Amino acid sequence: MLPHLGSSGLQARFDLRSRPWPQVLRPAKRRELRRGLVAKALGPSPEVRAGLEVVQGSSVGRAGLWRRALLLLLSASALGLRLNAAAWGAGVTACTRANQWAHALGLLGEISARGVRLDTLGTQTGVFACMIAGRWEQGMHLLSGLAWQSMEPLARSCFSPLLMDCQQRGNLGGEIALMKLLGRMGSQGGDSGLSLAALAASAAELRLLSAARQRPGAEVALARSLLFRPQPGAQVLFASGLAGRATLGKLVQVARNGKAPNLGSPYGKELQVLRQILDTVPQGNPEALCQAMPAFSKEASDRGAAKLKASILCAAMLGAPAGGSVLEVGGYCGYSAIRMAWSCPTATIASLEIDPVHVMVARILIAFAGLDSAISVWTGHSKDLIPRLALKKDEPGFLSAVFFDTKGSRYHEELAALSDCGALKPGAVVVAENVLKPGAPVFLWQVVLGKAFATQALEVQESDWPPDDWMSVSAMLPPFSTMRSLGPWDASEPPLRTLAVC
């Protein structure tokens, strides 16, 4: 039984029909008889049946049932009933949905002590509870028992929130440990896993160097450890640069001498592109890298669309007001960020990406291009990262340009989040991808019909969509600096009938 159950008054609030369970079960000598007595003790009480439904996962959405679920789980386990991973995971979910983080963590401890391995859904919920409580070690322990076949959804739903939390808290050790665990899990899958393990190891070293540049005292020790020879303090940046080139050099050798990744395995496509870049493009040449990345696409229309989109994006960035940063929402593997940094050498770019493997690929390609001082890549969802990034800035209006390349159905929410925290400079440029297909109707409604933006839509041919798609380029007009100052027509969502017609 969890140690904090009694102090929280759970037993007093949930009466198992006033039955003394130990006395009822003491005469039973066979497990089958115990199960029968348990069922008889529970009886047909609606409250008990509702609690059992929570435990079985059929009513986890009802937050008020968490007390019943918790007591039933622990009582049934104490009575010798074997509960499966789904039942334990449902109990964790019931606690987390009720914001009972301490009970969820206690239940995770019971699960670990009993050697139960949660399924993917239970693990995702448990990781979220660990993230809220700042227990990244416990979350990493949960992840270590999962199979590599579900790597891609796990990376986004489980690894990403923990990595984001560690990065935002400045927990570099936790971030590195999670990256290496992700690589080890991927190594269970064969050829692609081996490449994923090498990717994680190199990305971890580069992340260490990037963080150490902001901590002068730590950078000397780190450079020494990576180069295996002492360096005087005056040569800190030189030493870390050597260490970074050595790290990339090792990965280049792996790319050239190792077996090609299996395209059908998790992240096989991304690893194959990374391998071809490292094998064919000279290090420190962002122009050659930008020209090479679209060339590795199988479809000629993909290559043409990528170049046209990059040209539109860079032209829009050049028209943004000076003195601010650029935010990319949906960085994928870093191509757009590298292209923007190459075209606008004075720009500083923050790229947000939810998939941690894509983050690692992007960081390696950015470092390989020699642009790691201009581009920072953040792991996590935009709805979580945008407010946190805004808090790190002392003055409002720190963004000159924004590039949306995620789901169009979220563009208006992301724009509102940026506007509400005062992140956009007057005259800021907002570029959005794929606003026609799959589409961003609410976003287009606001930037086209509203008074705060001047907007143009540009046609782009996509291979996956025979008709043309659109990229939108919007400039915020004075005197608007936030959408709070807009009228109801400007910032409201379009009527449902209008959306249906669109």
What would you note in describing this structure?
It comes from Polarella glacialis (Dinoflagellate). Its EC number is 2.1.1.6. One of its GO terms (biological process) is catecholamine metabolic process. Keywords: Catecholamine metabolism, Methyltransferase, S-adenosyl-L-methionine, Transferase. Belongs to the class I-like SAM-binding methyltransferase superfamily. Cation-dependent O-methyltransferase family. The chain has 502 residues and is α/β, with parallel strands linked by helices. Among the domains are: 10-146, no CATH class; 309-501, Rossmann fold. The chain contains 25 helices and seven strands. Strands 3-2-1-4-5-7-6 form a seven-stranded mixed sheet, sandwiched between helices. The longest helix has 22 residues, at 191-212. The radius of gyration is 27 Å and the shape is globular. The termini are far apart.
